[in-house]
From TrEMBL:
UniProt main location, coarse: membrane
Name the record gives this protein: Amino acid ABC transporter permease
The organism of origin for this protein: Bradyrhizobium septentrionale
Membrane spanning stretches: 21-42, 68-87, 94-114, 120-138, 145-166, 172-196, 217-236, 242-262, 304-324, 344-364
PROSITE patterns reported in the protein's UniProt record: ABC_TM1
Cross-referenced NCBIfam families: HEQRo_perm_3TM
Coiled-coil residue spans: none
């Protein structure tokens, strides 16, 4: 064992008597737990239940003959994620190689579990994401152009997926699309609420404050269910799909939290800059868009990303309005008597997917935060 490793062990695990005793107790327990889990995962677990139910887990009850639409959405989502990374993360050789290796392993597993076509489509979608990452980073495109392209990608996903009907959307695809759509909707609405709460117009300030405090005082499940019920009452002659009503409930709820995050960022902007802009006779719109909001949003990147994770994890509540999200799809599989004994396999797979997506979002947010911090030095 090298001197560096011994020094690290002494500094982090055996620095004092209490640290040494704690390490001698905890490390064997962790080793035993890791061995037991690895033995179960590689020897005892029956993963064929996941492979046989992967279509339900990924797309719910979406028609099998229309799955090309789902694959188009997967490719678009990968390209969007890669483009987002390209704005703030430099695609180094090691990072690209790691992404390509992970994609190759996932594609090989899908080819072995499902079929070769699905594995090839997975590899192509991931390659598209990596290409977008590298291409956007080296193209030098303006951020506004890229953001417009991301919005166009979301619109394209809705247009392509919608012909079979919103009610058949499900699985992981529904959870991801719901998260992206709600995140996009809540940002401008939350910014308007934050500006309204600090407005000099008393009525606008009171209305914005009342809305924010009301939404923050009730649970998400109540808002989603309330919007789902009240829309048909207000528009009885129109048929609004449950998915759109659910998205509206999520957007209305989380916009209040975005407003508070943005308000904290607005308060961090030096007042001297605002006074200087007003002394130059800048309009309120120019002041907010060009000076205040860019600095405020830079400050609140961490809570805004945490909000995206909250939306993704909270997507499980759509089951109350009859939709089948990723977690609900797993529960549907376990409801089959043939799969009732495979609880561990299904929930371990769900945990791994949630962890992977959450980790990817967190990694991207940290790199974005570091990129924005460099711009302030």
């Amino acid at each position: 064992m090298s001197t560096v490793a011994l020094r690290w062990l002494h500094r982090n695990l055996f620095a004092g008597p209490f640290d040494a005793a704690l390490s001698l107790v905890v490390i064997p327990i962790l080793v035993w737990a890791a061995y037991a889990f690895a033995h179960w995962m590689l020897v005892e677990a029956h993963w064929e239940v996941v492979g046989g139910s992967l279509k339900v887990l990924m797309t719910g009850i979406y028609p099998s003959d229309q799955l090309w639409r789902a694959w188009f959405s997967v490719g678009t989502l990968c390209a969007m994620f890669g483009a987002g990374l390209g704005l703030s993360v430099r695609p180094g050789r090691a990072a690209v190689a790691a992404a390509a290796s992970a994609a190759a392993v996932i594609a090989a597993l899908i080819s072995a579990v499902i079929d070769l076509t699905s594995g090839m489509l997975t590899a192509a979608s991931t390659a598209l994401g990596v290409a977008a990452w590298v291409g956007i980073h080296h193209s030098g495109l303006d951020q506004r152009v890229v953001l417009s392209g991301l919005l166009a990608g979301v619109l394209a996903i809705f247009v392509v997926l919608s012909p079979p009907g919103f009610e058949v959307w499900g699985g992981l695809l529904l959870s991801v699309v719901l998260t992206i759509a709600v995140s996009i909707l809540t940002l401008p609405f939350g910014i308007l609420l934050a500006l309204g709460r600090q407005s000099r117009i008393a009525s606008l300030r009171v209305i914005s404050t009342a809305y924010i405090e009301t939404m923050r005082s009730v649970p998400l499940i109540l808002v989603v269910y309330w919007i789902w019920i009240i829309v048909p009452l207000l528009a009885p002659d129109t048929s609004v799909p449950s998915l759109l009503r659910g998205m509206a409930g999520y957007a209305l709820f989380f916009a209040a939290y975005v407003a508070e995050y943005v308000r904290s960022g607005l308060q961090a902007v030096p007042k001297g800059q605002i006074e200087a802009a007003r002394s130059l006779a800048m309009s309120t719109w120019t002041l907010n868009v060009d000076i205040v909001l860019p600095q405020a949003l830079r400050v609140v990147v961490p809570p805004l990303v945490g909000q995206i994770l909250d939306i993704f994890n909270g997507a499980t509540l759509v089951f109350i309005i009859g939709l089948t999200d990723f977690l609900r799809a797993g529960q549907m599989i376990l409801a089959d008597p043939q799969n009732s004994g495979r609880t561990y396999e299904i929930y371990v797979f769900l945990f791994a997917v949630y962890l992977a997506i959450g980790g990817a979002i967190t990694y991207a947010s940290r790199r974005l935060e570091a990129h924005l911090a460099r711009g302030t030095r």
